[in-house]
Amino acid sequence: MTTNHTHLVHGGREDLRELGVHALPVDLSTTYPLAGLEAGTASLDALVEGQGSAENPVYARLFNPTVQRFEKSLARAEAAESAVAFSSGMAALTACILALRERGNHIVAVRPVYGTSDHLLDSGLLGNEVSWVSATEVADAVRPETALIMIETPANPTLKLIDIEAVVRQAGDVPVLVDSTFATPILQQPLRHGAALVLHSATKFLGGHGDVIGGVVACSEAMAASLRRVRVATGALLHPWAAYLLHRSMPTLKLRVERAQFVAGELARRLAADPRVGKVHWPGLSGFPGAELLGRQMLGPGSVLAFELPGGHASAARLIETVRLMTPAVSLGSIDTLIQHPAALTHRVMNECERTSCGISPGLIRLSVGLEEPEDLWADLDQALEACSPASRAA
């Protein structure tokens, strides 16, 4: 089921007419005057215990109304009871792990995921143990102390697709977290397929303009209360100005995702037919593994793609240095096209053998396609690929 565009426009704005304003208000207060000591104490207790709001916000680490507006908008887009916003995607993932520690310290995860997520899980920094398995091995890896199962679909950077419902069936009563950053609520709503938590690096498509960092988790209200308790204790609340920018971007999310997806398709098909390029990873291509999930789990293949260069790391470096219109930078989901080398950047923190085993080769390039004209982007890629060809290198 697609996210209703009307919801994206009006979510979190329901009271603006009552307030007598048209633009979203921004509350930058760090502290709030108390109507009375007893009321302030009661509000403090409620917020520390994970309540979504209180009579008095007391202090901005506990609650901010601008952040709450964005949370309401995202929850509506994900068909969730609640959403909890954090200062970054990694802060959001950290909170999920800590909030579920009472269930145990074991996590089951499927590679690939974002490189820093992989590092956080594998490092044990949060006192957890992780079992890395394939998507069909989840049930065998679950233990009595398993607190969480994590998948990312489409996966970063190979675009690997995972059947969420199949993982949920294997999970039993263990919560399943889906990093759905690449899909956004426009193309995929994991809660409708049985997931317990949906994680977004809001920095990416939700923000969409490369000017804000944030993370958000959509879930049940009971789970949200646990996440808020962690957020209060760790100080990871999203900044209100970031929340304003994210909320302002929500009405254009569907338009941006659908336009970028169209442009990505034009590039993916040309790359797949180009003899200078090896394998192309994009769910919209014929024969892509898991493509049967399109239409059932995902409404479209998205706008991130990856492709292999036969010349390995040297060719990848040359290509990235040679593009002129595309921006050589990490991150994704921006209005402009970003190109980067996962093995050297976003997934460098992973062990080399682990990178290779999940398909992150030295010649793999990740492309986050923006809103430009396809012909302009292809002209840029074409000249860069030519510079990487054997004849050009020999010259």
Please describe what this structure looks like.
The chain has helices at 5-10, 16-19, 37-48, 65-77, 89-99, 115-123, 138-141, 164-171, 184-187, 221-234, 240-249, 253-272, 312-322, 352-357, 374-388, 390-394; strands at residues 82-86, 106-110, 129-133, 146-152, 176-179, 197-201, 215-219, 280-281, 304-308, 327-328, 338-340, 364-368. The longest helix has 20 residues, at 253-272. Helix content is 38%, strand content 13%. By secondary structure, the protein is an alpha/beta fold. Helix 4 (65-77) runs parallel beside helix 11 and helix 5 (89-99) crosses helix 10 (221-234). Strand 2, helix 6 (115-123) and strand 3 form a beta-alpha-beta unit. It starts with a helix and ends with a helix. It has a domain at 253-394: Aspartate Aminotransferase, domain 1 (Alpha-Beta Complex), CATH 3.90.1150. It is built from 16 helices and twelve strands. Strands 1-7-6-5-4-2-3 form a seven-stranded mixed β-sheet, with helices on both faces. Strands 8-9-12-11-10 form a five-stranded mixed β-sheet.
Gist of the model:
Helix content is 38%, strand content 13%. It contains 16 helices and 12 strands.
Relevant terms:
395 residues; alpha/beta; Aspartate Aminotransferase, domain 1; 16 helices
